[in-house]
Amino acid sequence: MKTLFISLILGASCLIACTSNKNRNDKTKEIKVDKVLALIDTTDNGMITEYYPGRKVKKVTGRLDQDQKRHETWYYFKKDGSTGSVTTYFHGKKHGHTIVYHPNGALHYKGEYNMDKKIGEWKFYDTKGSLVQTKRYE
Prior knowledge:
Layout: H1 2-27, E1 28-33, E2 36-41, E3 47-51, E4 58-64, E5 70-77, E6 83-90, E7 93-101, E8 107-114, E9 117-125, E10 131-137
Antiparallel strand pairs: 1-2, 2-3, 3-4, 4-5, 5-6, 6-7, 7-8, 8-9, 9-10
């Protein structure tokens, strides 16, 4: 009787696990982005979502171009789920605005890139959010 009960439990568990994997694989696939394993949501035009261990909290989200390079706006999240930074990419290069936050959530710095080079006025802040430096890049 115990053997039959254990067999039924194992069989049901396998069926549930196989069904869950099948449904997940219909919508997502795993790839490496910048040498890190990430999950692509194939139902959302190539949106990449990387999770912290346990896959409960997002670590990074963004899109890839046709050559698997970062493209458009990428969001980086802290382990508590709050935003760590926002950076815009153009075919793998930082291009556009970037905003980075201190671990406590206060603004750390903001500026703009032109094909991986810092341009224009960048502002840097302390952990209390007070402006401490402004720097201009050509």
